[in-house]
Amino acid sequence: MKHRFLSKKYWKSTATAMGEAADTNKNDSSIINLSIGDLDIITNEAIIQKAFLDAKAGHTKYTNPTGDPELVNELIDFYIKEYKVNIEPSEMMMTVGACHGMYLSLQAILDEDDEVIVPEPFFTPYSNQITLAKGKMVLLETREEENFGINIDRLRKLINERTKAIVLNFPNNPTGACLNRNQLQEIASVIIENDLIAIADEVYDVFSYREAFSPLMSIEGMKERTITLGSFSKGYAMTGWRIGYAVAPSFIINCIRDINEGICFTAPSISQRAALHALRMRRNVQQDIVKEYEKRMFYAAERIRNIPGLSTKEPEGSIYIFINIKETGLSSVEFSKLLKEKAKVIVIPGNAFGGSGEGYVRIACTVSVEKLKEAFDRINSLLIEISTIKEGF
């Protein structure tokens, strides 16, 4: 929208398919919304109650700019126990979700026109965040026949004197792909060899269904050149609390702390207390969440593979399934529009995640198995009807 009171850089709308889906037909109870990754599970009652008591006890003020020391120390203990990674308090900062952490990190490391390699399909906000930091996004295509993994030869060809960083988001949004430790070591070798920094978006760490998750910074030689972004949104069903964190060398943490002074100063104190209790109760809290989403993911994948014209790979991680729709002959946008209008099921067109996402749609398994069944029943009926009509001509 053009207006003299708006900056010219925003005259062209930057609204995304994800943002638009979030506002779609909220009052229509017949809609099944599989678009946005907002867990349908409420934050564990014990976490809510403990955070409430902390608020009553006075935890309603600013915390230290890098975070509540008690929470920082608990996260340090978490990384030691879970991954045998030693972190200093000076190497961690609490953020208002991982997106906030990503923005701060890019602002801290990028000079104008520095290049950032981003595997595609990619989490949609990366593009705007890199642009806002005056960097240039360079896309590394990933392919379904390679399980949407990182092709080392294609990665090497993208690296030049302007390359500053690579973003690694695994388990991946939108494809659900994971990287095992051997693959991480291979990627790490390229990063170290070319003196790059990595931004590891590890928001879906707990949703790794085939093998145990390994953080990138646990790979030898990577801790000193990795910014790790974590979040309590998904693994603890705490999206609305808006709490995440960044782990990085202390000079980077000092820089993003200073940048954040002009943005929001600190992450919310009450949310940080909730995160502290979530960490302490993780054995009980996360198990049920992960089991429920694993059940949904494998149910959805099985249904998809039995619907004419659709296919998908076996789930590896995350809470998303990337559905191949190429056999339908429809574009991602056409297919998404058809589902919305005829089946009242909302999905995200794959091209919202970059050009190589064309021919796919993403679903979020954020409804119950019963709702998923209803959604796939509708989709199946619609596609059979369309196929029958085509055969009649």
Tell me the series of helices and strands, N- to C-terminal: HEHHEHEHEHEHEEEHHHEHEEEH
Return the structural class: alpha/beta
Total number of helices: 12
User: Count of DSSP E strands?
Assistant: 12
CATH superfamily of the largest domain: Type I PLP-dependent aspartate aminotransferase-like (Major domain)
Output the CATH topology of the largest domain. Aspartate Aminotransferase, domain 2
Q: Name the CATH class of the largest domain.
A: Alpha Beta
Number of structurally distinct domains: 2
Give the low-confidence spans.
Answer: none
What's the N-to-C terminus distance?
43 Å
Largest sheet: 7 strands, mixed
Radius of gyration: 21 Å
Can you walk me through this structure?
With 393 residues, this protein is of the alpha/beta class. It is built from 12 helices and 12 strands. The protein has 2 domains: 8-43 and 284-380, Alpha-Beta Complex (Aspartate Aminotransferase, domain 1), CATH 3.90.1150; 60-282, Aspartate Aminotransferase, domain 2 (3-Layer(aba) Sandwich). The protein is globular and about 65 Å long.
Short description:
The chain is of the alpha/beta class.
For the structure shown, list the relevant keywords.
Aspartate Aminotransferase, domain 2; alpha/beta; globular; 393 residues; Aspartate Aminotransferase, domain 1
Layout of strands and helices, then pairs:
Elements: H1 17-22, E1 32-33, H2 45-56, H3 69-83, E2 92-95, H4 97-109, E3 115-120, H5 125-132, E4 136-141, H6 152-158, E5 163-169, H7 181-193, E6 197-201, E7 226-231, E8 244-247, H8 250-260, H9 269-280, H10 282-305, E9 320-324, H11 332-343, E10 345-346, E11 348-349, E12 360-364, H12 369-391
Parallel strand pairs: 1-10, 3-4, 3-5, 5-6, 6-7
Antiparallel strand pairs: 2-8, 7-8, 9-12, 11-12
Helix pairs in contact: 2-9, 3-9, 4-5, 4-8, 10-12
